[in-house]
Structures are given as structure tokens and as C-alpha cells.
Amino acid sequence: MTALINTKFEASIQQMQQSVTFPSGTVKYLFQSSFEKFLQTCDKQHTVLITNEHIAKLYPRLFKEYKTIVIPPVESSKDVLTVETLAKELLQIEATKKTIIIGIGGGVVTDITGFLGSVYMRGVSFGFVPTTLLGMVDAAIGGKNGVNIGMNKNILGTISQPRFILFDTRFLHTLPDDEWSNGFAEIIKYACIFDADMYAELSRNTISYYKKKDDKALIKLIERCVEWKNKTVLEDEKENGIRKLLNFGHTAAHAIENLYELPHGKAVGIGMVIACMISEKLTGLDKTIAENLKNLLSQYHLPVSFKIDAAKAMQLLRMDKKRIDDSIEYILLERVGKAVVKPLPFDVIENALSQYESDNRTW
Questions:
Q1: Would you state the pLDDT for residue 97?
Q2: Could you give the number of structural domains in the chain?
Q3: Which phi-psi region, left, alpha or beta, contains residue 285 (left: φ > 0; alpha: ψ -120 to 50)?
Q4: Considering the domain boundaries, does residue 315 fall inside one?
Q5: Is the per-residue pLDDT at 74 higher than 50?
Q6: Do residues 197 and 325 both lie within one domain?
Q7: What is the pLDDT of residue 152?
Q8: Higher model confidence: residue 89 or residue 362?
Q9: Does the residue 2 lie in any domain?
Q10: What's the pTM?
Q11: How many Cα atoms within 13 Å fall on the side-chain side of residue 309?
């Protein structure tokens, strides 16, 4: 990677105290920081900002002096055509190997930015400023940068780490209520697969508890999730082993999300319920845990019931990237804090989806 010429920016990056070195690169983390102040260290000539329409309208002062590309804030933006369009825009503004691309937004923005940064001119430096809770605890962390092909999620992608991730929780002050719920779906996921203590903490609290502007509980929760994901990715960056556990709830969710245009977190909540249904039969998961998880999801305003077409969902799942011949590697729970990977034949998954469809047919 060609070194940046902006020494002030480089000095700012190096002053970030927290860093993690993965096989694909070192990431600097800056928690409880001001993106506006950080941006002042960036050379306007060699910095390109990528954001979505919502953030551009809410925070116009951040973008007025910098080369900025704005994309629609929808999942359909995360495709190859968007990448091609953005690459052409980078060429038009004469972005070179010395350019740094900074993605400011939710998971769509950081995925697009990471993918584009990984392939433009065979790779330029890029960084993330997640503006949603889901982005801060999950989507921006770990180095996965993917785009969709039609209704199939993240079929094209790279594993390439950003130079930095900056966490400015003031962006959350303008976050809609639904986006808070989306973020907590991923937090609940971490608790289910890794952290029974976090699960207990979440059970005692509510979204309003964590939304307090003067409360440090949210910062601690974000840092805890980042720590769990970094620990997992450090051990298995290429997703050959333990990193697969992070897909808990996501296998069915990806199909449901695209079929019904559901927000990612809401689909993940439904996916976790379906995974628990299968877990009861295959890992001996206690039925009371599945019921407790439903209550916890509802507590954080996430759906546990939804009308689905099992046959249509199964069509998409047959092209899931975790497919191995006639099975899919599925993440199941043995207990809260303990998850396992099991290859499930298509008929087992289809039966679970059909059962969920039947249970929720009149919902």
C-alpha cells in the first residue's frame, strides 16, 4: 500500500492508542472521539468522503469542504453497479493511490467503501466512521467488505482491514428508533454466542437505558462487542473456523431480509428464533432459553413473529455462500454463551422454515 503523503493525518492515525493487527492489516481504533475534529487533519486534496443521503442532510457542515460522494441509504445500493459508478466518480475527481476514502454511515456505506477501497487501483487506504449502532458494534468491524448480486447477499467481497475506525457516538443522537433496535439485534447475537454476562445485563435493561446521552453504559457495550469481534477475527480472519459463529441468526435472516426488504437487525432477530427452533432438536437447547430469547428480542423492539414464504426463502438459501454441496453450515446454540457450527441438510432447514411459516401464518 502506497504511503499517504499527508503527514498530519498520519500523525493523527499513529496517536490512536488502540490498535489490532490482523493478517490483512493493522486497524487503529478511536473511541469517544469527534469526527469533525479528526477530519481537520485530513488533506482535502487526497481525501474522499462517502456517505448516504440521510447523513449528508443531517450533517452538511462535515462535507462542504471535502470531495464527497453520496449514495442512497438503502440495501439495493450495495451492488456492483454502485461500485462501478463510484469508481468512475473517483476517476473523475482524480483519486489516486495516495487518496484515502472514508465511509461515514451505516453498514451499506462501510461495506461499499471497504469493497471499493480494496479494489480501486488494486487498493487504496480507507477508513470507517460508523454512524449507526449496528455499524459500531458489527458491520464496520472485522474487514469483511461485500456487495450483493440481485437478492443474494455479499456474493462478491474482500477481506481487507480499514486503516482506522472512529466511533463518534454523537451520530447516534439523530438515529431513528428502528435503527436502535437493529443495532441491538447484533448485540444480542454476541451475547447469545459468547457472553452470558452480557445477556444477563441486556435482560435487566432497555433501549432507553442505553440511549441516555450522559450514560457510559452504551460506550462500554459497544467496546465489549468490538472486543468480541476482534478476538474472533484475530483467531480466524478468513472465516474457516470460529468466525463462522458470528453468523448466528444470519443464515435465514439474509433470505428473509431480501425477500421482504426488512431492516437487517429485524431479520436477524427472526433468524435467531429459527436457529433456536433447530437447536432445540439438534443440540438439546432448553426450550426455556428459546422463549427467553423471544422475550429479550421483544424487549428491544425486535420481531419474533413474521409471515414468510418458506419455499421462496429456501430458494435463496440454496445459493447461500455457506453452502457445502447439499447442506449449509448453520450456527446453533447449545446454551447462552455457547454456539456451535453444524452442517445441516437442506431438508432440515426447509422443515424449520416451514414450521416457522406454519406457526406465524395468521400473524
A1: 94
A2: 2
A3: beta
A4: yes
A5: yes
A6: yes
A7: 87
A8: 89
A9: no
A10: 0.93
A11: 7
Contact 245, 334 (CB under 8 A): no
Q: Are residues 302 and 324 in the same domain?
A: yes
Residues 152 and 183 in one domain: no
* Dihedral-angle region of residue 106 (phi above 0 means left; psi in -120 to 50 means alpha; beta otherwise): beta
Domain boundary among 139, 173, 207: 173
Instruction: Report the CATH number that the domain containing residue 156 is assigned in CATH.
Output: 3.40.50.1970
List the domain range (segments joined by +) for residue 32.
Answer: 7-173
Write out pLDDT tens, residues 8-19.
Answer: 666 666 666 689
pLDDT at 314 over 70: yes
Per residue in 215-273, pLDDT (tens digit) is 789 999 999 999 999 999 999 999 999 999 999 999 999 999 989 999 999 999 999 99
Backbone angles phi, psi at 122, to 5 degrees: 65, 20
Determine which helix (DSSP H) or strand (DSSP E) holds 245, and give its type and residue range.
Answer: none
For residue 152, list its beta bridge partners.
Answer: 149
Per-residue exposure over 255-289, b if at least 16 CB sit within 10 Å of its own CB, e if not:
bbbbbbebbbbbbbbbbbbbbbbbbbebbebeeeb
**What's the pLDDT score for residue 361?**
75
**Strand partners for 145:** 158
Do 84 and 121 reside in the same domain of the chain?
yes
Strand-pair partners of 331: 341
The dihedral sign for the CA sequence 54, 262, 320, 338: positive
Supply the CATH number for residue 246's domain: 1.20.1090.10
265 in a domain, yes or no? Answer: yes
Residues 336 and 280 occupy one common structural domain:
yes
Q: What whole-number distance in Å separates Cα of residue 330 and Cα of residue 229? A: 19
More confident residue, 3 or 337: 337
The type of residue at 290 is A
Mean pLDDT score across all residues of the chain: 93
Tell me: do 167 and 201 sit in the same domain: no
SS3 state of residue 44: helix
